Amino acid sequence: MMKTKSLLLAATAAAMTAGMALAEPVKVGMITTLSGGGAGLGIDVRDGFMLAVKQAGNPDIEVVIEDDQRKPDIAVQLADRMIQSDDVDILTGIIWSNLAMAVVPSATAQGKFYLSPNAGPSALAGKGCHPNYFNVAWQNDNLHEAAGAYANSAGLKNSFILAPNYPAGQDALAGYKRMYEGELAGEIYTKLGQTDYAAEIAQIRASDADSVFFFLPGGMGISFLKQYADSGVDLPVVGPAFSFDQGILQAVGAAALGVKNTSQWNKDIDNAANKAFVESFEAEYGRLPSLYASQGFDTANLILSAMAKADVKDQDAFREALRAAEFDSVRGEFKFGPNHHPIQDIYVREVVQEGDVFTNKILGVALEDHADAYAGECKM
Amino acid sequence: MSFLLLIEQILNGLQFGVMLFLTAAGLTLVFGVMGLINLAHGSLFMIGAFAAAATAAATGSFVLGLAASLAAAAAAGALVEMLVIRRLYNRDHLDQVLATFALILIFSEGTRWLFGSFPLYLNIPLALSGPVTLPGGIEYPLYRLTIIAVGLLIALGLFLLISRTRLGVQIRAGESDREMIAALGIDINRLYTVVFALGAGLAGLAGALVGAIQSVQVGMGEPVLILAFVVIVIGGIGSIKGALIGSVLVGLTDTLGGVLLPETFKLFMDPASATAVGSALASMLIYILMAVVLIVRPTGLYGARA
Amino acid sequence: MSRETIFNAVLALGLLLFPLWAYVADEPFMITLATRVAILALAGVGLNIALGLGGLVSLGHAAFFGIGGYAMGILAHHAQSYTPLMEVPFLIEGTKSMPVIWLVALAASALAALVIGALSLRTSGVYFIMITLAFGQMLFYFAISWPAYGGEDGLSIYVRNSFPGLNTLDPIQFFLIAYVILAAALMFAAMLAKSPFGLALNAARQTAERVETIGITPYRLRLTAFVISGAITGLAGALFADLNRFVSPSMFSWQTSGEIMIFIILGGVARLFGPVAGAALFIALEHVLGGLSEFWHIYLGLLLLAVVLYARGGIIGTLAGREVAHD
């Protein structure tokens, strides 16, 4: 028995040596948020990513994971370490735009690949695009643009829009307005990290709005939704998926029921890859996968697909292999635009209750084969 | 903006102020009596919210949740006082800052270890949900009115506790002269543990009450901590009355500033940049208020001399 | 030689030898870590002048750290995009030259410290802690919502700024720059403590009435100390931004103020090398514990707690005895 096993191993080794060009080990550095208040997102990305790696069973991929504590300077320090000491080939994992802006430009300038599983700041999609930077999630504006498009098709004519006063918030409102054709009943910037929205809700009530669009990620969105539901204002609410994600919906509870939100993924998208992903994720971790988990899963599968076609040390070939994006995305159709950002369908979902669990179901497509607005500025 | 909306916003400012008072009362009590800077006050707030959420989820009762928040935070407070804080009274503020900062790290990650990284569900009880119509036709959430009532009750309770009870006499004596109180044969260790547990319990209760309309998650205590410090410093450290007035002042400034500043800038700017500039200034406003108060009155509104 | 002097010498030598070893062993990241220690220690040396020598507990030094960082970010941003900083009334261009950036960082943070100090020093004790915090928070929210320089996203600098005759992109050379500046700041702080100004400041910290009777106004002494303190922390901010090739509002956050203060408490308040020892220990703990567990903050918290409770006077106080050398 022993003998056959070692023989088998030797055979595998020989086979691998034969296929050497394709089997150069790839080292991936994952910098993500694993401690503190934003840890839920990073943990989902990591779990999704590692699930794909585990399923692939490819011994040639090695992943180093570190916690950035959601601090830009720590993220930079970790990136320095992974590039200088660990000698990684690919970096990934960052959740927040401001951390991505701190890490990505210098990492790509040092000849590393960066694959974004979540953040997509406009600066990196337009003038600051780079051949080694790939975004596997979305450009930041995309989901907001889809919300604007949905508002048109739902016949909403007078939206009240609000977001925190920081770049991603300003992009969110700009993204919504880019597609939305109706009037604005009001436009408010809230404080970043704000927890009480009584004043904003009073303004919404006093306006003659027919709908509310908001982008308030994390705890801000939970607070807003609870307070909005309790205020008695019953205008329809539209938002990007971030405030209606699997990770936080249970905390919002019934207050979110019926809300329409836009996302490039949902667990009921009908394709084989997605079905397998949702089932195996639940089996592995005992919870439903989130948007972020799906993005981590796709990122890993993209890397694995490129590894099967090219050697990571041959940058040009590997880049081509990434650009081809020949993997079974859990979103279905997936391809990269000229600036290495996704061209994909973005759906409208509705928050529903299934038994004890709050989750989303897809209503339809908000934007088909949608690319971002900055691709034209990218000279690559 | 209509007159009615302005009234509603003033009400919102008051309500936010009372919410701040709930979180600041325990902090100012502990500071006034023991002279302790407790950065971990926000963590006790968080512990209260988590205890309430866990209990409410298990029993389905919001009232039991409130009781649990009070008990859990007070117990955590008493434990921490006996193990750590007690050794810090005679130290300078710097050691207190470092020690209570260390406690934040332990509490935050300990909570995440126990409850996981995702926010918890805690909602207001059915009986208190939804809006009621006030005279003048303002629709206002019942729960927020309840918070105002509870906050004022707690303020009253603290006044009575300090002015009318035996514990209050001891607390006042402890504030003015520590040796004196020991000479009177009062067990100062026990007194301090009780006061600290009381402060912690108040923080925990606030966490549960406020947590019901906000997000119960790790890290929810830190923004609260900074605001609570702003409030007690404006009011004058150690003064319950100061904390109440400071809270309302901060609540009104923050709420009305956020609403009125962008409107004001729209008078002479285009709407988009008026909104941006106005909101930027509004987010700095309470700190400007605090600086101005301290420049004019270096020990806050009702503080004793430093 | 006192035990503290020996300890200081060992620390200074260790901070120099460690990256040199890393250079030989080809561990560039270890050099980066040592550079981080040197720069954060420099920020601490700045704060220690106000806090240790003057007894001014400022929880708002992130303001100066951030101003220094943005001085670098804004100047380099304009230089790399070839757009002038301003054209009227006179032309100011951006720059990628470190010495110029340092001067601007020093001047800007000194000016800010003058304004903040002049207003804050009307208060004392806990009120001083809190009013400095308030100024730091004002700048934090301003930086987040001010769109011209990236808001919360901050500013990225693609290539590190230049220093005549050196290749700053080489980790060891950039470390040496930071190390020399730290050494100079330490020497300056030592001289300051022994100077008539330092002695008067120290006396004013212990008994303000006593110095008033000999005709010195404590307010002016303290304001001067606060300005020097802010300027040095501002310089550290410029270097920190250059280390990361990035600047963001998080440099202004109250957590940053707290961290700088923690370096000092950890190392030993009013000890010349306190910030160096504290920063070195903190960064080392962060590096070692970070790899142990997802919940490593718990261990960090327990260790910090142990230091406060059982190692009074910080590391240096414990190792070198309770007497502060210059007292």
Uncertain stretches of 5 or more adjacent residues of chain B = none
State the secondary-structure class of chain B: mainly alpha
Shape of chain A: globular
Q: Helical content of chain A, roughly?
A: 40-55%
Backbone CA Rg of chain B: 20 Å
Which structural class is indicated by helix and strand composition of chain A? alpha/beta
H/E series of chain A, N to C? HEHEHEHEHEHEHEHEHEHEHHHEEE
Q: Count of DSSP E strands of chain A?
A: 13
| CATH topology tier name of the largest domain in chain A | Rossmann fold
Q: Please write the string of helix (H) and strand (E) elements of chain B.
A: HHHHEEHHHHHHH
Radius of gyration of chain A from the CA trace?
Answer: 21 Å
Tally the helices of chain A. 13
Strand order of the largest sheet of chain B: 1-2
**Beta fraction of chain A:** 15-25%
Give the amount of beta strand of chain B, in percent: under 5%
Poorly predicted sequence stretches spanning 5 or more consecutive residues of chain A: 1-22
In which range does the helix fraction of chain B lie? Answer: over 70%
Mean pLDDT of chain B: 89
Subcellular location (chain B): Cell membrane
Protein name (chain B): Branched-chain amino acid ABC transporter permease
Keywords (chain B): Amino-acid transport, Cell membrane, Membrane, Transmembrane, Transmembrane helix, Transport
Family (chain B): Belongs to the binding-protein-dependent transport system permease family. LivHM subfamily.
How do the strands and helices of this protein lay out in sequence?
The complex is a heterotrimer of chains A (380), B (306) and C (327).
Chain A: H1 2-18, E1 26-32, H2 39-56, E2 61-67, H3 72-84, E3 90-92, H4 97-109, E4 113-116, H5 122-125, E5 133-135, H6 142-153, E6 158-164, H7 167-179, E7 183-190, H8 198-206, E8 211-214, H9 219-231, E9 237-240, H10 246-252, E10 260-263, H11 272-285, H12 291-309, H13 315-324, E11 335-336, E12 342-354, E13 357-370
Helix pairs in contact in A: 2-12, 3-4, 6-7, 9-10, 12-13
Chain B: H1 3-34, H2 41-59, H3 62-83, H4 93-115, E1 131-133, E2 139-141, H5 142-164, H6 166-176, H7 178-183, H8 188-211, H9 221-235, H10 240-266, H11 271-296
Chain C: H1 3-24, H2 28-53, H3 62-81, H4 98-120, H5 125-145, E1 155-156, H6 171-194, H7 196-206, H8 208-213, H9 218-244, E2 246-247, H10 254-267, H11 274-290, H12 296-310, H13 314-320
Antiparallel strand pairs in C: 1-2
Protein name (chain C): Branched-chain amino acid ABC transporter permease
Keywords (chain C): Cell membrane, Membrane, Transmembrane, Transmembrane helix
Pfam families (chain C): BPD_transp_2
